[in-house]
Amino acid sequence: MALDVAFLRGINLGKRQMKMAELKTCLEEAGFEDVKTILASGNVRFLSKAGPAESKTLLEKSIEQKFGFKVGVVLRSEGEIKEMLAEHPFDRIDPAADVTRHVLMSDEPLPKGVVIEDRPGHTEIVRIDAREIYIACYRQPNGRYTEGVEEVLKPLYAKLGKGVLDTMRNWNTIEKVLK
Known about the structure:
It is a single chain. By secondary structure, the protein is of the alpha+beta class. The chain folds into two domains: about 1-80, Alpha-Beta Plaits, CATH 3.30.70.1280; about 90-175, Alpha-Beta Plaits. The chain has helices at about 20-30, 50-65, 80-85, 150-160, 170-175; strands at about 1-10, 35-40, 45-50, 75, 100-105, 125-130, 130-140, 165-170. Strands 2-3-1-4 form a four-stranded antiparallel β-sheet. The protein has a four-stranded antiparallel β-sheet with strand order 6-7-5-8. A hairpin with a 3-residue loop joins β6 (about 125-130) and β7 (about 130-140). It is globular and about 45 Å long.
């Protein structure tokens, strides 16, 4: 059995509410084992006999049937999460900086050679991998960290077009999903 982590996109916003205990039950009823939700923002770890594509399809179908709305799922294997963590993508960030660290995970590979202009001291693109973009967001005078992210990523989304499935998580969440 393979350990996978699913990151659900756009839940617990508006009418798209989902209790994590209900999500856990939903996945167990679908045949996933050792299901554990992480935080209340749509992160769930589980064991599956199926391959990644089959697991993703089953997750999306089961969630839609249980909760009554479609949810995009970005899936990462235990090995992929371990690799992300082992590469320490935020090591070049000053540990004393007032910053939040995030990773944007895409369901499909990003275009080769993609370049995203960052805003130093505001929203910095730390690294771009095949399906991940690592982003450092600095605290602004208004006290917010991430309000510039959408503007920085806008050219990427214009290039990718509609229908791209991705989701962003705080790096602290990534550090917790395998524990």
